[in-house]
Amino acid sequence: MKIGIVCYPTYGGSGVVATELGKSLATRGHEIHFICYAVPTKLNKFLDNIYFHEVELYQYPLFEFPIYTDALASRIIDVARFNKLDIIHVHYAIPHATSAILARTILNNKIKVITTLHGTDITLVGLEPSFTPVVRFGIEASDGVTAVSRYLRETTISTYNINREIEVIPNFVDTEIFKPGENLELRKKIAPKGEKILIHVSNFRKVKRVQDVVKVFEIVRKKIPSKLVFVGDGPERGDAENLCRQLNICDDVLFLGKQDALHEILCSADVFILPSQIESFGLSALEAMSCGLPVIATNVGGLPEVVLHGETGYLTEIGNIERMASYVIELFEDKNKYREFSEKARERAEKFFDKDLIVPKYEMFYEKILNQ
């Protein structure tokens, strides 16, 4: 198949999943065309069967803001015509679905549009009154729609009064890359005295509640010598850094910013902390589990579909700092339980979320839509 993939190229779950999906499909013989305003962060080397098409934004004094939706639609039309694409697979409903549907109309319906819903396009941005009708239209008018969790599917149907089928295809992980294997050199640099290491990975948006990670760590370090590692960047990073200064724990907290070698960093840590206010799936938690890290997270959204409470980690109520900290301490003090959780976390990632299990589901979905 010839597949166009539209996604945001930034450091975030939807862009990462879209890029990894395209790369996996290319290795399976499909011709993949990425259509974005910049090269996706994970598309950092030459790969056979993969092409990139930049969306160029026209600047004109009359337009106060660049008209991205129209520019994207025009680029989709050009790429689809010239390369004879079969499918346009858009990730994130706003504005990608609208642009793809406009392009399909201009192309006289000679291409199929598949929309994958990832989370905040439904639970946050799409709830803005100015966007809600457009999001609903994009979902209803697509030829096929998928969601990354059962939670997101049900939320979409109930919130937007959707009357069509939405197929659940979960996010996936490459278990050959994200696999257990202690990174002793990095671990020694982070924790030279053999301290335990907690880690959090996110885009540092408000819903991630990164200050809660700091508060959990402060409790843990009072009982067990520990270090805290943050990976990623975003608007809440400054507040998290200020809180570390207020608590006088800066010497034990490391902010690494955005990193490509995430699996190497995860393999240097012991426990993954994710105290989010909402998560439609929790890709970072899955990547940590695949590396054998137990996950301490909130019992929200799609996280219970990924993290099994009492088996691969623990789930708590939003904002329950003390409970999260007690779970971390419990795992650090009970080596047998920690080992059991670590093994089950890896096992669950391999058994249910490995890319070789999930990518064929997308292929079957493509075939289903093409044959309608």
TrEMBL record:
InterPro entries, alphabetized: Glyco_trans_1 (IPR001296), Glyco_trans_4-like_N (IPR028098), Glycosyltransferase_grp1 (IPR050194), Thiol_BshA (IPR023881)
Domain of life: Bacteria
Annotated Pfam families: Glyco_transf_4 (PF13439), Glycos_transf_1 (PF00534)
Glycosyl transferase family domain span: 187-348
A molecular-function term among this protein's GO annotations: glycosyltransferase activity
Annotated signal peptide: none
Domain Glycosyltransferase subfamily 4-like N-terminal, chain residue ranges per copy: 11-176
GO biological process, one term: bacillithiol biosynthetic process
Matching NCBIfam families: thiol_BshA
Protein name, as recorded: N-acetyl-alpha-D-glucosaminyl L-malate synthase BshA
Organism: Candidatus Kryptonium thompsonii
Organism lineage string: Bacteria, Pseudomonadati, Candidatus Kryptoniota, Candidatus Kryptonium
